[in-house]
Specification:
Layout lengths: L2 E6 L6 H16 L3 E6 L9 H9 L25 E4 L2 H5 L14 E4 L11 H25 L7 H13 L1
Helix pairs in contact: 1-2, 1-4, 2-4
Length: 168
């Protein structure tokens, strides 16, 4: 059964899209049956061009990625989520909709906060640098997630492992 991971950020235009793309990229490269999705509480409707640029420079395709509402993942027919990760402080503080996991259970939820790279100082060069550093940091955590025996972990052990990753 595919492990479905939802990554949330308020506007679903930068950090959550970077995380979605990095997790899907590494899962495919490592042959793991993990599918990432991203969404936001107030989606901007577009992916930040610096996020697209950072992914392209890393050799990661962006076809099919879009800014979308988290409501898509609490609706009928949504994939059964195993893990929900918030990556920005404003999304962590919001009341999330009820997401349904496999067998009708709630998915494991964790917060891995990152500063907004679109707020970086230094003009376009500063933003490019911030987006690349954020992409690398997210990629590292996604590799750590994929190193876990997700399918074999009990809910509490998975929660603890994901929290530990967030502290690394």
């Amino acid at each position: 059964m595919t492990i479905q991971v939802l990554i949330l950020c308020t506007h679903n235009s930068a950090r959550s899209v970077l995380a979605e793309a990095m997790l899907n990229h590494w899962a495919a490269r490592l042959g793991r049956d993990v599918q990432a999705h991203s969404a936001g509480s107030a989606p901007s409707g577009r992916i930040n061009p610096f996020a697209i640029e950072a992914l392209h420079h890393a050799g990661i395709g962006t076809a099919g990625y879009r800014s979308k509402s988290w409501d898509e993942f609490s609706a009928d027919g949504a994939p059964p989520l195993s893990i929900v990760i918030t990556v920005c402080d404003s999304a962590a503080a919001e009341t999330c909709p009820v997401f349904i996991g496999a067998a009708g259970s709630q998915p494991v939820k964790v917060h891995w906060g990152y500063p907004d790279p679109s707020d970086a100082d230094g003009g376009d060069a500063g933003k490019r640098c911030a987006f690349e550093l954020t992409r690398q940091a997210l990629g590292y955590r996604m590799l750590q997630l994929l190193a876990l025996p997700i399918e074999a972990l009990e809910r509490s052990a998975l929660q603890a492992a994901l929290i530990a990753i967030g502290r690394s």
